[in-house]
Specification:
Distance between the termini: 42 Å
Number of strands: 20
Bound molecules: ligand NA7
Structural class: alpha/beta
């Protein structure tokens, strides 16, 4: 498409965020169009089709809260929704809201440039689409720029190379194949047990042993589901005002104020129940102090000893050197158990690093592994990667990538000074990946929708975060993180998984509820921390929302 009249808004992405944003703006009477690089809706759930791909949020609250009919009708069958279920859900949303007509699919945005004189953005795609719009809203997800490590000789490998975050649409058959999985984060930990059941042999290349907790996935009791559906508004309310977007109450007990036996019993109960309550539902301070953290870490290491039969393999699988919970805690189904299978072997890359790839496999300092397929479960350039990849240029032609060279600076994770009328859904500096994503996505979409309606009512057409508010918010994001154990670990939350990426804590750990209240206050105060200007030619005058001097 190439629009003659500028649109009100272009939205980039058709996952949870993009679908809701387009719907919301369309319903509010804005002209809006979406671009999506995939050939269909789904975002993260369009690309992550690897075996075992599943959401670690329970299905009851991994959904939109604004679709009350669908909420009642959608079947809740399994505790954690698998990738095909979530994709079907988003396809149903797109159909019910008639959203596909407002998107161009197979359209990868490669440039978004701001024209200061016209106050307009021009958005271009690799496929040749051009659109001009007053506002640009990015809905590109936090984990959508795949990280492909550069192993020497990678191009020589003649077998199949796959990345979990960019999986083919057709299922891959591993029957009779020798498979390598590189990476043991949440994706690898989900994929490894499933691939092991099919492959002739699976070799897992582990750089850092991970803590993982049983998901305890399974069919949901339908009486429980009926009760949940009766009380949906209350569950949604609790999720919105919680710390991480989950509708459960966090523990108020400190780990060291109970006896060792009571602690063990609490961890056992949480381990048996499965899910993230292992961290948040047992003790309040597990990610706050090293002493409390060590009790949980020791418990998981003891479980590895119980489960894994070969003591040498168990030892390799034991995470050490970083606090549990500072790397995103994966949930698994039979992960540690998989290493008891005769067709699975484990390579510790810390002891024997990869030296290169050959036509037939992977060479480490200890020898060569012949494989037919290499699965890269090597993660993403998280949060900043997807945004920096859009080719965004703001005032004076400055690129977002350059402006963020020392780390992302945002106001509320949703706006960046120098980039007027650009909004970043679940951007760095917002709770995003530390939360149940649909909750954070809805909050941002609604906040941005309200902001655009307010600008229209005010007769203002340009809004921009101030330097002062951005500096204060960015410092606050780091300050809150500094009171946790997170800065002590080399994680993708800290940018540590990408060579050369600045080490700053990327998401906001102050909590979903407090963050929501803060954003609401900013709006109620006339978008405090933003400047706005009017739509008359030459009008650079400040509007009520101008807090430049505040
Ligand atoms: P993660 O959590 O970033 O995991 C990536 C894994 O790949 C991790 O074990 C890395 O080891 C490993 N990795 C990365 N680069 C290399 C190289 N060069 N060599 C060997 N191993 C490497 O990504 P996931 O896709 O599993 O999960 C991302 C999020 O998606 C997850 O947290 C959920 O929120 C959903 P490392 O630990 O860096 O030593």
């Amino acid at each position: 498409m190439a629009n003659a009249e500028p649109l009100d808004a272009v939205v980039i992405g058709a996952g949870f965020a993009g679908l809701y944003m387009v719907y919301r703006l369309r319903e509010d009477g804005f002209s809006v169009h979406g671009f999506e690089r995939g050939d269909g809706v789904g975002g993260t759930w369009y690309w992550n089709r690897y075996p075992g791909a599943r959401c670690d949020s329970e299905i009851m609250y991994y959904s939109f809260s604004f679709l009350s009919e669908l909420e009642q009708e959608w079947p809740l069958t399994e505790r954690y929704p698998g990738q095909p279920d979530i994709l079907r859900y988003l396809e149903e949303v797109a159909s019910r809201l008639d959203l596909r007509k407002d998107f161009t699919f197979g359209a990868e945005v490669t440039a978004a440039e701001y024209d200061e004189a016209a106050h307009l953005w021009t958005v271009r795609t690799a496929q040749g689409h051009v659109a001009t719009a007053r506002y640009v809203v990015t809905a590109v997800g936090c984990l959508s720029a795949a990280n492909f490590p550069e192993f020497p000789g990678a191009e020589r490998f003649q077998g199949l190379s796959l990345h979990t975050g960019n999986w083919p649409r057709e299922p891959v058959d591993f029957t009779g194949k020798r498979v390598a999985v590189i990476g043991t984060g949440a994706s690898g930990i989900q994929a490894i047990p499933v691939i092991a059941e099919q492959a002739a042999h699976l070799t897992v290349f582990q750089r850092t042993a991970q803590f993982t907790i049983p998901a305890e996935n399974g069919p949901l009791d339908q009486d429980f589901v009926a009760l949940w559906k009766q009380n949906y508004p209350e569950w949604r309310r609790r999720a919105r005002h919680s710390l991480a977007g989950f509708p459960y109450t966090a523990s108020v007990t400190y780990a060291l104020e109970v006896s060792a036996a009571e602690r063990r019993a609490a961890f056992e109960a949480a381990w048996g129940a499965g899910g993230f309550t292992f961290l948040s539902g047992t003790f309040r301070d597990l990610v706050m102090t090293e002493e409390a953290n060590a009790t949980a870490a020791d418990f998981v290491r003891s479980k590895i000893d119980e489960i894994v039969r070969d003591p040498a393999v168990a030892d390799m699988l034991k995470p050490r050197g970083f606090p549990i919970g500072t790397k995103r805690l994966p949930l698994d189904t039979n992960y540690y158990e998989t290493f008891n299978r005769p067709n699975v072997s484990l390579v510790d890359l810390k002891q024997t690093p990869v030296t290169g790839l050959t036509a037939t496999g992977i060479t480490t300092s200890a020898g060569h592994h012949e494989v037919d397929v290499i699965v890269y479960a090597t993660g993403f350039d998280a949060l900043t990667g997807p945004l920096e990849g859009l080719g965004i240029r703001g005032r004076d032609g400055q690129t977002l990538k350059d402006v963020w060279a020392e780390g992302p600076r945002t106001y509320l994770g949703v706006a960046v000074p120098g980039f007027p009328n650009l909004f970043t859904i679940t951007g760095p500096g917002s709770p995003s990946v530390l939360s149940n994503m649909p909750v954070s996505i809805e909050q941002h979409v609604e906040w941005i929708g309200d902001c655009l309606s307010w600008l229209r009512a005010e007769g203002a057409e340009v809004i921009e975060a101030t330097e002062q508010a951005t500096t204060a918010w960015t410092a606050h994001v780091q300050d809150v993180a500094s009171h946790t154990l997170h800065p002590k670990a080399a994680t993708w939350y800290m940018g540590a998984n990408i060579p050369g990426k600045p080490r700053v804590f990327l998401p906001y750990i102050g909590g979903v509820g407090p963050y929501r209240d803060h954003c609401a206050k900013v709006a109620a105060n006339g978008y405090e921390g933003f400047t706005t200007t009017g739509d008359q030619e030459g009008d650079d005058g400040a509007r009520p929302g101008d807090h430049r001097a505040a």
